Amino acid sequence: MTTSAQTVLAPTRARSATAAATVRRKQGFQHGGWFVAPFLLLFVLFVAWPLLRGLYLSFTDANISGEGARFIGLDNYREAFHDRMMWDALGHSAYFTLLVVPCITVLAFLLAMLAHHIEHGKWLWRLCFFAPFLLPSTVAANLWQWLFTQGIGLFNETLGLDTPWLTDKSYAMLAIVIATLWWTVGFSFLLYLAALQGIPGHLYEAARLDGANAWHRMVHITLPMLRTITGLVIALQILASLQLFDQAVVMQDFGPGPELSTRPFVQYTLEQGFTSYRVGYASAMSIIFFVIIAVVALTRMWLLRTREESVR
């Protein structure tokens, strides 16, 4: 009798436990929803809605007043794909990215290694390397604009040069790259420094006992252990560099640079929307740029997943 009673009661207890778990999940969702609601509200207001609104405007001939917009289908996109100036601006952003990303990755790693292994004054070195990143973009850009000014700039005076950094298309983009490296390397430096501090010390001790020198320890321990953080740094720098705007605009006094040589994609998009008043066309270019950024991010995620699966 006891066995049959237990057999009868077992499904009932299981159903009761399942129902109780369901109630707890619903209660947890109801309470957790209040904590998530502010973020969801801000996300909808400042991300989802502008994106959907921009997507709609990209199919119209809307102007800056927002009145009398007509639906024109894919005309804006057709014009964009045949706009040589848009492709030139995109090329400037891509060229800037190709220059900045490798340099900032290597420089941040070297600075992190220095700050990690130096014996005295570690806090001062870390502060000096990271402090420029705390400056607003306009302050950093104005500072380097003065440093590069021909005739009175400290850069030419110190190096004994007379290079027209900001007025010659051969040097203008390089000047922006140098300013960007100084301004933004602190963020990647901090990521590398935190990763270096997380490497177990016993790995280096074992390598020393096996006779490995400093170079071998870096190649066979440090760099492999930093592979993930290096991928993160590269991905973040690519996404940030493609969105070049502040330093390029401010250092060129809000102009497109000598012979349009430093005008990035974002600046050209803003010119179309707020100078030429073609909001619909600017929206189409923004959507194209959004797709490019999304493709870069998804490609990075796919490569990372493929690498992890190959390691396994």
Blueprint of the fold:
Blueprint: H1 2-57, H2 75-81, H3 84-117, H4 122-130, H5 137-148, H6 154-159, H7 169-197, H8 201-209, H9 214-225, H10 227-242, H11 246-251, H12 265-275, H13 279-311
Keywords:
single chain; 312 residues; mainly alpha; 13 helices
Describe the protein.
The chain has helices at residues 2-57, 75-81, 84-117, 122-130, 137-148, 154-159, 169-197, 201-209, 214-225, 227-242, 246-251, 265-275, 279-311. Helix 1 (2-57) packs antiparallel against helix 13 (279-311). It has 13 helices and no strands.
Helix/sheet category: mainly alpha
State the shape: globular
Global mean pLDDT? 86
**Main β sheet profile:** none
What's the total helix number? 13
Write the H/E string, N to C: HHHHHHHHHHHHH
- Beta strand count: 0
N-C termini distance: 53 Å
The share of residues in extended strands comes to under 5%
Radius of gyration: 27 Å
Helical proportion, percent range: over 70%
What ranges have pLDDT less than 50 throughout 5 or more consecutive residues? none
